[in-house]
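ligand=manganese (II) ion
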Amino acid sequence: MIIVLKPGSDQKDIDYISEKLEKMGLKVHLSKGEERTIIGAIGDERILREPSLAAYPAVEKVLPILKPFKLASREFKQENTVISVGDVTIGGDEIAVMAGPCSVENMDGLLSVARAVAESGGAFLRGGAFKPRSSPYAFQGLGKEGLEYLAAAREETGLLVITELMDPRDLDLVCKYADIIQIGARNMSNFSLLKEVGKINKPVLLKRGLSATIKELLMSAEYILDEGNKDVILCERGVRTFETYTRNTLDLSAIPVVKSMSHLPIIVDPSHAVGRADLVPSMALAAVAAGADGLLIEVHHNPEEAFCDGPQSLRINEFTGI
Ligand code: PEP
Ligand code: MN
């Protein structure tokens, strides 16, 4: 349910109503727009039907949020969420470019990619230190050593670091090194992990699950928002279909669909979507044309030798040429 306050309502009104709601056992979330403050009350549907709230003088109207996701909805927050990381913004006018190897392998390779990303105007270096591999025998990532390489590359290039967290036991470690925490497609429905990253004070990039609907993606974002972390970036990275010429099928329509229903920023990962380097540039451009707030692109200094996802990784000159 949302409680829309009258224009000109002050902090005293907000506190008064929030306290009442909390006493009713509801969780209170504030959305302060330029003109109005909206109080989101989340909890037991029966309490939410309480009619007396509309009688408070500062209240303009009380409305149900009809969508299953509440805090992620445009009903709760009309303005786009703009997330600041360092001096970069995501969800505003800039296109946030995040690029780097699938996994961090060694310092020299990572640095050569990082330098190219920084020189061509990218803002973030991506690279997995903990890799979600389909086979337990495949390279699992360098762990802490990989995080240290990412931090060293940040130090040299000024790029911000985005890297994946797979296990809540690594939360403190990954938070120590990362500027954005990535939750991978395979963990989109790991609700206990989502709750943990909901409690931190760092932006979270939430990737769409392999076969997840847009509604399920937004419900997963809701888990993070409900714990108090408002800085959630969604990521479309393709979904599984019957098509075999591409690794997944890039759902470009997810961008305007998300934008119509949610205030959260959405970026696109064309690399995992198509699984083929030759298709990445056109899909990256298409994503931006469709309204994406950023791109997550795999780039490797020598794709033939990459420990994972070589076929979909751009060479450095291919990346700088886009
Ligand atoms: C990745 O970006 O490193 C990754 C593993 O992607 P996804 O979770 O989308 O498969
Ligand atoms: Mn990859």
